[in-house]
Amino acid sequence: MKIVKDFKWKKGLRAGELVKELGSVGFQGVELGKATNAVIKMKKHGAKIYLTFTSNMMTSGLRGFFAQIIKLQIPHIVVTTVGGIEEDIMKSMGEDFIVGDFNADDVELHEKGCNRIGNLYITNESYCKFEDKMAPLLSKLYEKKKIWAVSEMLAEIGKNLDDENSVLYQAAKNNVPIFCPAITDGAFGFHLYMFQQKHPDFIVDVVKDFKNIVNTSSFDDKKGLIALGGGVSKHHAILAGLLTGGFEYAVYMTTSRHTSGSMSGATTKEAKSWGKVKDDSDIVTVIGDVTINFPLMMISVLEQLDKEELL
Amino acid sequence: MKIVKDFKWKKGLRAGELVKELGSVGFQGVELGKATNAVIKMKKHGAKIYLTFTSNMMTSGLRGFFAQIIKLQIPHIVVTTVGGIEEDIMKSMGEDFIVGDFNADDVELHEKGCNRIGNLYITNESYCKFEDKMAPLLSKLYEKKKIWAVSEMLAEIGKNLDDENSVLYQAAKNNVPIFCPAITDGAFGFHLYMFQQKHPDFIVDVVKDFKNIVNTSSFDDKKGLIALGGGVSKHHAILAGLLTGGFEYAVYMTTSRHTSGSMSGATTKEAKSWGKVKDDSDIVTVIGDVTINFPLMMISVLEQLDKEELL
Amino acid sequence: MKIVKDFKWKKGLRAGELVKELGSVGFQGVELGKATNAVIKMKKHGAKIYLTFTSNMMTSGLRGFFAQIIKLQIPHIVVTTVGGIEEDIMKSMGEDFIVGDFNADDVELHEKGCNRIGNLYITNESYCKFEDKMAPLLSKLYEKKKIWAVSEMLAEIGKNLDDENSVLYQAAKNNVPIFCPAITDGAFGFHLYMFQQKHPDFIVDVVKDFKNIVNTSSFDDKKGLIALGGGVSKHHAILAGLLTGGFEYAVYMTTSRHTSGSMSGATTKEAKSWGKVKDDSDIVTVIGDVTINFPLMMISVLEQLDKEELL
Amino acid sequence: MKIVKDFKWKKGLRAGELVKELGSVGFQGVELGKATNAVIKMKKHGAKIYLTFTSNMMTSGLRGFFAQIIKLQIPHIVVTTVGGIEEDIMKSMGEDFIVGDFNADDVELHEKGCNRIGNLYITNESYCKFEDKMAPLLSKLYEKKKIWAVSEMLAEIGKNLDDENSVLYQAAKNNVPIFCPAITDGAFGFHLYMFQQKHPDFIVDVVKDFKNIVNTSSFDDKKGLIALGGGVSKHHAILAGLLTGGFEYAVYMTTSRHTSGSMSGATTKEAKSWGKVKDDSDIVTVIGDVTINFPLMMISVLEQLDKEELL
Q: CATH number of the domain that B276 lies in?
């Protein structure tokens, strides 16, 4: 039986230690503590780890952290949406995103060429730069072959970037496949379409990529899932895991609620009814903003793995 | 200046009238009233209307209502996710979904072969029936041609169903294209993959479908958006509208919040910064469960259009 | 076993019928249907009904509806917070509240003397009028006696109002006590304080009112709770019910979530651990905006009771 | 112009440093960073600081942290609800609360005498111990005088406790008044009522305590507000501040949303329309669980103040 412990600040408290203490404080602090333990188990038990996140997290400064943990070989498979891929490429070209305001005047922003994502802004110029990059990149790909599975395409693009903080770069370098089931749903899609207009035999083969994600794991693998936010990236990883027997470990971090029956709000508990996670799996749902909760949890994981020389 | 009016029940009050009264009650009731007006304007001003919804809404009984409003020619373009398409097909085969409980024992449900989506259940049998249907359907498609854009494929499937309450059936019959940018993200994707294993030249061309959705509207069209829930379906319609000049009208219904910078929670206000909706557009965000708010709003719209003989 | 039914609009659909149909649609529609049934049972089984709501619902046009159902003898006990009492008095003096905008410029509103509550505004003038009313009212009360329990005070004020749409007026007229455990937490509290400065023997006895609320029910009564929103009004009714054996029926309507351990988000399920509701009680939690969900549910209840000549 | 910075973990990262970095990451991380700065300003500019929290935070291990920051003289005024006061007393008597599960079986818990608050449990025994304490405590108070303002009563109780981690103890010791506008809304209220049955001249004077809270600040004071969660504790501090000219600084931490017009979800922006915060005030609303966000923010504040020898 675990007892609630009164939290006390001690000077110089490390972030990793704080998370441990929060595990005895209550409410989402407790869930955060459990999530940390679940991820540590994934690593110790040699699980294949799927990391999923939505585009807005790549807009945020979590992007560099994702790149870092890919380099540290925490996740083995990444699933995301295309907006984030675009932004990773923009940032790898030196583009900066702006810290702004949730309550900004949006008409004014529009006039200034600033596109708002919560309290962050991306300028039109960044999209223009992205466009300049895409045309030659697609030509290069096309020269190699005509039909591309999405994850192959993203690996190839990653090889063409040169930025330690880039998710695509680190994933390519460390042989971590990136899946993106709705690859056309963004500016990227527009450039694919423009390119296909000129090269009608250029094909993005999404069905083949389904095979690829299913083949990343076998029934014999232990599997772990870290799903940040919801939507198609979360669902796609779950589906891939389900087709090879379900997950032994799952951590969901979300702000969505389960009460509307949405995928984004679906809990790890609900996942049991589907066999998405095993009946006796180690599962945690942490409610809250990923920009705060994910670094907290993952720092605690990394410090612990480092301490045990498992990093 | 609009004044808050005390709401009073009158015997036999119609649903359409209730919504009008809620427009003067306060909070989300007011937003619901505004949303009704925005959709009526879309119709009166001849806007091209994009309707987007997530899969869980097809799980629910909104599916028949979506089919009905497609038949009534309210939306001109539909964007959704593949889970809902699967479920529309299951239901058109006579499968029933079960009204259950959010707090059900999920391990028990799993043992019984019930898959939970919030407080609704789909049995494994329904998925098996779906599988039986898919194999011959894909063969039939393959005989016609080898390369399919998603919306063409869904139209063809719709022609093969025979159910007045089916979204695919009504959409096919009424020439309403259905877009589904992440077509592999479900059991449907699995069946596509199995089929491609045997027929390697079978291709689903998502890039071509991007062209198709962009071409549904021109810069000259007035455009309206009704986005139910978030995720890729919402974003894809917004993107298509943006590429042809942005929306004049937009109604978002969601339970997600804007505070995490997610697409699902992004408001119509944020959309202005992107030019996704025009600076002087008619926009409303209604927070709440779509199973309640969408029928309420749409009944009010339909009653009004019917009264003015515009239906 | 209940089956999901495809919803179809029929011309002239009544609000009460809609709710019944939503009960087979899914997600919160289902919970709304269950809530309707729970309230009908409360009435049929002669339960003592506690109705609680937060101040913002009195700001809204629900105020007239609360007055109406008090007149119709639906609730037997009301618990609320003092802001709503102030606003009920203002409205009974002819003051109007304004339907505004969630995104209004708040500095501008402040300059105009408009106080914002979500998308509704109350002007400073309404507060001035309230002040003019309070001084003579308190003198009148003081002449009668020096020590007042809160509910006695509110009943006396209700007798001094003359507005069919007033909650205090109807409650006084129909012998429905109104409890308000934090009576000083508003402009009302300020006026009590000013009055006490001049009349130091003027006492508001909150402890006595605790006795009063406990005595509204006995262990023998069946008890039902309709809690709209959370906070102290919800908790106070629950506490009173708990002290006389717990509720047989409970409907909570809230936008708060249970994941932070707050009273506002606490579910009817959690209430079982406390004995706040009985183990085999009829309980429902409906997530969503009360301005929409409460009228919908209650109209359905009233139509059903009327049909069975129980109104 | 602030730029989004890619976050990177460095071994041994301190919690205080992490918060600084999150300020450039995005979304609620940014707001947390702003909140830290606002609280540091409050201290540096000598503001009177009001700290408000709901009862569930006292159930959690934040209780010891509240006691610690009261000892460190961060807040000058505390406003809370009575459940938390009861639990502070129980814990000071050595009672332990249990870390449990949001999805526990509530009927089973009830049978075991465990009362659930989110994922924490309080046993019936703790309530019995509390009862044993209250009777002699109230007698002791009654011997001193018959009429008590709430804050005076709580200070007196604090003096009778002996626990460094107790909020009431530290508040009494450090002359920080604790206001609790709904003092009867809990087991405490029940014991007051039992005592008054035997001693009818025992009076809790809430009106006098309104005077007390208004008098804690003057128009000349700079004022800062840290409101954790919503409800009556948040509103009461705001009201007190408003009556002496409004706050210069305000940090709200909540999981509630502004879209239903509730006090709990009301933002710092809305507060401007009321003059609750000054037009040019320094205000931040952080959305998320207080058990995580409050320690993070406050650690960052304390480390900074300590570094500048202001602690």
A: 3.40.910.10
**What are the tokens at D178?**
């604790």
Q: What is the pLDDT of residues B242-279, one digit of tens each?
A: 999 999 999 999 999 999 999 889 999 999 999 999 88
- Mean pLDDT, rounded, of chain D: 97
Q: State how far the Cα of B188 lies from the Cα of C61, in Å rounded to an integer.
A: 47
Q: Tell whether C10 is within 8 A of chain B (Cβ).
A: no
Sorted by sequence, the CB contacts under 8 Å of residue C184 that are 6+ apart come out as: C82, C192, C193, C204, D181, D206, D207, D209, D210
Q: Is B123 helix (H, G, I), strand (E, B) or coil?
A: strand
B26 touches chain D (CB under 8 A): yes
Give, as one character, the DSSP assignment of residue A260. Answer: G
In a domain, D223, yes or no: yes
| Beta pairing partners, D77 | D50
CA distance B156 to B172: 7
> Are B229 and B253 spatial neighbours (Cβ–Cβ below 8 Å)?
yes
What is the SS3 assignment for A84?
helix
> Which residues of B are known to be catalytic?
276
Distance from CA of B240 to the nearest CA of C (A): 27
Q: Which pLDDT belongs to residue C124?
A: 97
Partner-chain contact B261 A189, CB within 8 Å: no
**H or E segment at B178?**
strand B178-179
| Binary contact (D56, C275; C-beta < 8 A) | no
Instruction: Say which residue the tokens 């007045």 belong to.
Output: B164
Question: Is B2 within 8 Å of C303 when comparing Cβ atoms?
Answer: no
Q: Which helix (H) or strand (E) holds B2?
A: strand B2-3
Distance CA B206, CA B213 (A): 11
Count of structural domains within chain B: 1
The parent domain of residue A145 ranges over: 46-94+124-289
Question: Phi, psi at residue A78, to the nearest 5°?
Answer: -120, 135
Q: Give a yes or no: residue C12 inside a domain.
A: no
CB of D55 within 8 Å of a chain C CB? The answer is yes
Q: What's the rounded Cα separation, in Å, for the pair C130 and C135? A: 9
User: What pLDDT score was predicted for residue B58?
Assistant: 98
**Alpha carbon distance D154, D147 (integer Å):** 13
Of residues A220, A277, A221, the one with CA closest to residue A249: A277
Q: Is C276 a catalytic residue?
A: yes
What is this model's ipTM? 0.96
Closest CA to B32 of B301, B262, B307: B301
- A114-to-A104, A105, A108, B270 alpha-carbon distances in Å: 11, 11, 9, 11
Extract the tokens encoding C132: 């003019």
Share above pLDDT 70 across residues of chain D, in percent, rounded to a whole number: 100
How far apart are alpha carbons A254 and D95 in whole angstroms?
34
Amino acid D299 reads I
Would you say residue A161 has pLDDT above 90? yes
pLDDT at position D288: 97
Q: What is the DSSP letter of B53?
A: E
Evaluate whether residue A2 is within a structural domain.
no
What was the pLDDT predicted at B195? 98
Distance CA A270, CA A256 (A): 14
Task: Give the whole-angstrom CA distance, residue A62 versus residue D25.
Answer: 7
> Could you tell me if B126 and B95 are in contact, meaning their C-beta atoms sit under 8 angstroms apart?
yes
Q: Do B68 and C8 touch (CB under 8 A)?
A: yes
Flag whether C212 is in a domain.
yes
